[in-house]
């Protein structure tokens, strides 16, 4: 099976990070093709990759799957243990993954993923409200499972919240001790650190993203 994952920039593309982590956890070989964002002609390139004009996109033997959640579900069909084994836990993991996929708009807007960023500036109230809701959810799940991840072993849910964890670090968002430990676990993961190293090696920047809450 020939797999190619089209992604955006390592430093900024949170949606690209999610399926990349999942594919690395599958231990299946795949190629990565990165598209620099916000450069002349980048939109044309994206529309060449997918009718939606977005990344990530997974090419599977010439067939292309857009959207991080669709890619995750494709991967889970090949490797079922990417979701929790217990049926109730699996349903809850899917629920919180969909919640991240569709919600927390203020956090996404006011604290975009920016792995090189470190700031302690005052954040908008709606962003802090989203962050508080995420911490409460993390704390609840972590208190009900043995951890160190949301559903004991690493799962797709953790892949979807990994880019959120980076935002807590980048923007100095408040978190509980339990959630802080969880964030540390996600960021200490060998595959995340591989991605982070690629992000820090990048020279391409997105000035508008860098200027958010600067």
UniProtKB/TrEMBL annotation:
CDD domains recorded for this chain? GST_C_3, GST_N_1
InterPro entries tied to this protein: Glutathione-S-Trfase_C_sf, Glutathione_S-Trfase, Glutathione_S-Trfase_N, Thioredoxin-like_sf
Gene3D superfamilies linked: 1.20.1050.10, Glutaredoxin
GST N-terminal domain residues: 3-83
- This chain belongs to the protein called Glutathione S-transferase
The organism is: Algimonas ampicilliniresistens
């Amino acid at each position: 099976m020939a797999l190619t994952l089209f992604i955006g920039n390592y430093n900024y593309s949170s949606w690209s990070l999610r399926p990349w982590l999942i594919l690395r956890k599958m231990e299946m070989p795949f190629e990565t093709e990165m598209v620099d964002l916000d450069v002349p002609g980048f939109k044309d390139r994206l529309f060449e990759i997918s009718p939606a004009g977005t990344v990530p996109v997974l090419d599977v033997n010439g067939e292309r799957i857009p959207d991080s959640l669709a890619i995750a579900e494709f991967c889970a069909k090949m490797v079922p243990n990417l979701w929790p084994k217990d049926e109730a836990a699996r349903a809850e993991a899917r629920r919180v993954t969909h919640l991240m996929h569709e919600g927390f708009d203020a956090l996404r807007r006011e604290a975009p993923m920016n792995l090189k960023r470190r700031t302690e500036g005052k954040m908008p109230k709606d962003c802090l409200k989203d962050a508080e809701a995420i911490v409460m959810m993390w704390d609840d799940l972590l208190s009900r499972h043995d951890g160190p991840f949301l559903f004991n072993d690493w799962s797709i849910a953790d892949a979807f919240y990994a880019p959120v964890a980076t935002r807590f670090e980048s923007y100095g968002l408040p978190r509980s001790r339990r959630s802080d430990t969880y964030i540390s676990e996600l960021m200490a993961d060998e595959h995340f650190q591989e991605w982070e190293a690629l992000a820090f090696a990048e020279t391409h920047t997105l000035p508008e993203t860098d200027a958010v809450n600067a």
